[in-house]
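Feature request, filed as a ticket because there's no other form

It would be nice if the structure record came with a short human-readable summary line next to the tokens. Right now we just get the raw output. Example of a typical job, pasted below so the devs can see what we mean:
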Amino acid sequence: MHDLISHTEENHYEEYRRLKLASQGRSDDDPEIRARKGLEAKMKEEEELLRKRFTEQVRMEENRFRQWEQRLIAERDRLNKDLETQHKHVKTLEEDVEELIARKK
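Raw output as currently delivered:
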């Protein structure tokens, strides 16, 4: 898709622009056109810088979320282990109670 967009911009749009300027009796040598091209180049550079900055921010956020996920998984595992330990303790206490009840009888 990116290739299609760039091909359209580079070939079809430039041809349209050249024909439109020619129909108006102007050319690429026109100072106004040169200034506009300079502005377009500057805007493309700024767009690329913004794109790179955005990509870096996304990468940083993804790393932050991965670390957060890892902490959550570690906490879940710890809590599950604690729960299992508590469950074993309750089972032991239940067995002790049952044993005491059996002795009383």
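Something like this underneath would help us a lot:
The radius of gyration is 35 Å.
The chain has two helices and no strands.
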